[in-house]
Design brief:
Helix content is 40%, strand content 27%. By secondary structure, the protein is of the alpha+beta class. It has a 3-stranded antiparallel beta sheet. A hairpin with a 5-residue loop joins strand 2 and strand 3. The protein is elongated. 14% of the residues are buried.
């Protein structure tokens, strides 16, 4: 059995009522995958900074997950046409370049 460990680094930036998170994964074979997330606190909400951190981070990890999935799909898709059908039918987000 082989065990691998992938580590994800998360940078969180807060400015006023905005929180931004960037999640980055570097795989053992050198593939870098990044996802970004954003949270905005409504003026009517209490100021609880960790909530913004959690929401922005969750969104960044979701985006990272989608990007990682697309990298795998690109590797197994026999041709670009098949990949485009998968993206259009099941994955409404934009592919990373």
């Amino acid at each position: 059995m082989t065990t691998k460990r992938w580590n994800i680094g998360i940078d969180i930036t807060e400015q006023d009522d905005e929180t931004y998170a960037c999640a980055t994964l570097t795989t053992a074979d050198g593939v870098n995958v990044t996802g970004a997330g954003h949270a905005h606190r409504s003026p009517d909400d209490r100021s609880i900074p960790e909530v913004g951190d959690e929401i922005a981070t969750a969104r960044a990890l979701t985006r990272l997950s989608h990007c990682l999935n697309q990298i795998a799909v690109r590797k197994i898709a026999p041709q670009q046409h098949a990949l485009q059908e998968v993206v259009e039918l099941n994955l409404p987000w934009e592919l990373p370049e």
